Amino acid sequence: MAIPMQLFSCLVFLLFLFGPAAANEQGLKVGFYSETCPRAEAIVEKIIAETISVAPSLAAALLRMHFHDCFVRGCDGSLLLNSSTNQAEKNAIPNLRLRGFQIIDKVKSALEMECPGVVSCADILAIVARDAVVGVKGPYWEVETGRRDGRVSNLTEALQNLIPPFANISLLKSGFAQRGLSVKDLVVLSGGHTIGISHCSSFNSRLYNFTGKGDSDPTLDPNYIAKLKLKCKPGDEDSIEEMDPGSFRTFDEKYYTLVSKRRGLFESDAALLDDSETRAYIQSHANINGVAGFFKDFGVSMVNMGRIEVLTGTMGEIRKHCARVN
Ligand code: HEM
Ligand SMILES: *[C@@H]1O[C@H](CO)[C@@H](O)[C@H](O)[C@H]1NC(C)=O
Ligand SMILES: *[C@@H]1O[C@H](CO)[C@@H](O)[C@H](O)[C@H]1NC(C)=O
Ligand SMILES: *[C@@H]1O[C@H](CO)[C@@H](O)[C@H](O)[C@H]1NC(C)=O
Ligand SMILES: *[C@@H]1O[C@H](CO)[C@@H](O)[C@H](O)[C@H]1NC(C)=O
User: Fold this and answer.
1) What are the contacts of 241-248 at 24+ separation with CB within 8 A?
2) pTM, two decimal places
3) Please, which pLDDT band fits residue 238 given cuts at 50, 70 and 90?
4) Where are the domains of the chain?
5) For this UniProt entry, which segments traverse the membrane (predicted)?
């Protein structure tokens, strides 16, 4: 009797260690598709690796896309919906610079071939964001899945919910807090600006007309202002600038060095020096050799972001085409 009992507890213990992960309180879990579409993540990984080897700049665009989906109506794929009257989230000004929708469509078609009607567009955005970061030498993290797709996409909601580049620290903190994200998540996820580009329109006022008197932003390094002015002439909205000059195609922690030197491109980047907790994080990650701490933090914060107001269970739908409701 004693032996089978020990065997039994041993099995229970092993199940606890290696059994299927339980869904968290949002209803998401790592490996949601392991039975219903076992090759889903491998298929996404392959397409994104190929995409980035051909067009490295898309990594940044695909990371940003998941962020912009999650901050408006939660991570429900509503960013991807088309509107015949151009009233969808993607038609809102802050989303007009998003790129890479066709890559999401490509991933979706491949997954529909493999297992029709199973993998949501919202989950595709989350997995793609991870693989995009991995593709530019950033961290890997386990993506929770099990999101379903929302049916509503509203331009006004995008305008109201996407934080503008001129946000100050109070707006940034409250915007993150509203969505269950911490001050640490704010400073860690802002590190996403280690890759990618910006259009002059997002920071031009810092160069030429900061308070409406033809002045520039005193919190921005004057040498950097001079350099930016060469690229962005007054009124220029469309020229582009690297956000992390020198390594905008590598996911590293140079962003924090730049911000600490008052070379963060947006007011929202500079504002991270105005709070003791975010400032401390920046200072401890500036000029540090080794990205391990930031990499680990980034994975944790991306998982947190991926939990915002998700639809699970029988809510929403699994779309056949990410751009239109079934
Ligand atoms: C904290 C508030 C944030 C603000 C105000 C903000 C603002 C912006 C702006 C204005 C741009 C440039 C758009 C353009 O002119 O083309 C941009 C680009 C970008 N953002 Fe953010 N962002 C924020 C947070 C984040 C987060 C949380 C992530 C991801 C974790 C992220 C990832 C990116 C990336 C990768 C780009 C480059 C996009 C590209 O190369 O196409 N941002 N952001
Ligand atoms: C979009 O959202 C705004 C703000 O919440 C709301 O006033 C408006 O009625 C919504 N539009 C549609 C078509 O539902
Ligand atoms: C931050 O920005 C908000 C909205 O633009 C504004 O209402 C608030 O007064 C600003 N706070 C500080 C401390 O500047
Ligand atoms: C600077 O801003 C002020 C106030 O918003 C505006 O009246 C003025 O036309 C702007 N100047 C330029 C050169 O854009
Ligand atoms: C959505 O709109 C884009 C651009 O407006 C277009 O290229 C795409 O084919 C549309 N997708 C669907 C499914 O209607």
Assistant:
1) 241/197, 241/198, 241/199, 241/200, 241/203, 241/265, 242/196, 242/197, 243/193, 243/194, 243/195, 243/196, 243/197, 243/198, 244/193, 244/194, 244/195, 244/196, 247/194, 248/60, 248/194, 248/195, 248/196, 248/197
2) 0.94
3) very high
4) 29-161, 169-304
5) none
